[in-house]
Design brief:
Layout lengths: L6 E2 L20 E11 L8 E4 L5 E9 L9 E9 L6 E6 L5 E5 L4 E10 L5 E9 L4 E8 L13 E3 L16 E7 L1 E5 L9 H9 L3
Parallel strand pairs: 2-12, 3-13
Antiparallel strand pairs: 1-6, 2-4, 4-9, 5-8, 5-10, 5-11, 6-9, 7-8, 10-13, 11-12
């Protein structure tokens, strides 16, 4: 295991920090105002990456929030796993600096990450970093999917968890614990000259496969 809790491909499960993981058992919800994606930049501005073969690149799993649910006081945790990483590429996953705990392996069956205190609305919240090193010229679409098995069988999706704001009037509205959100994959081009070869309409079609 590497520094800062790095998880190489096929690494063991990892627990970062000390805390209690509370997984709610409710019904799945759909949150149009929240997204979970892999970005080439830490400001959630692009889902494209270009890198010469043999050169490592760090990309970021981010929760993109336009607004938090009215019945919650902030983002508490997230649950996901990586998909689409070519078997020949080197991959190392590392919890983001602000994460309080990370349980599991996002390169395997999945990981649950959480914060010491729920985070209020922020446009872009870092969850995990992923270092990729392509071995040859190739292309890949790196995506996110549900934990296997899901911690909450009623929420079988990659999700964001917003703790309920108890006590108060929001108590009667808080019926969803894990929110199934829109998933945004990352398009990676590993070429010596890093020329983007996907037309915008083609990439738009690719993205719809992960929603």
């Amino acid at each position: 295991m590497g520094a800062r809790g790095e998880i190489p491909r096929h690494g063991r499960a990892l627990v970062i920090g000390f805390g209690i993981l509370a997984v709610g058992f409710g019904t799945p919800g759909r949150a149009a105002a929240q997204q979970l994606g892999i970005y080439a930049s830490p400001d959630c501005s692009t889902n494209f990456a270009c890198v010469p073969p043999g050169t490592p690149i760090v990309v970021h799993v981010m929760a993109y929030q336009l607004q938090q649910p009215s019945w919650s006081y902030g983002l508490g945790s997230a649950e996901f796993r990586f998909t689409g990483i070519p078997a020949s590429w080197q991959a190392v996953a590392t919890p983001a600096p602000g994460v309080f705990f990370a349980i599991g392996d996002p390169l395997g069956n999945g990981v649950t990450v959480g914060f010491f205190d729920p985070l209020p609305t922020a446009p872009c919240v870092a969850l995990f970093d992923l270092t990729l090193t392509p071995d040859t010229a190739s292309e890949a679409v790196i995506g996110l999917a549900a934990h296997i098995p899901p911690n909450n069988p009623n929420v079988p999706c990659a999700n964001l968890y917003y703790p309920c704001n108890f006590p108060g009037p929001a108590e009667t509205q808080c019926v969803v614990y894990g929110l199934c959100v829109e998933l945004l994959p990352l398009q990676v081009h590993a070429t010596p000259d890093c020329v983007i070869g996907v037309e915008p309409e083609t990439w738009q079609t690719v993205k719809t496969l992960y929603r």
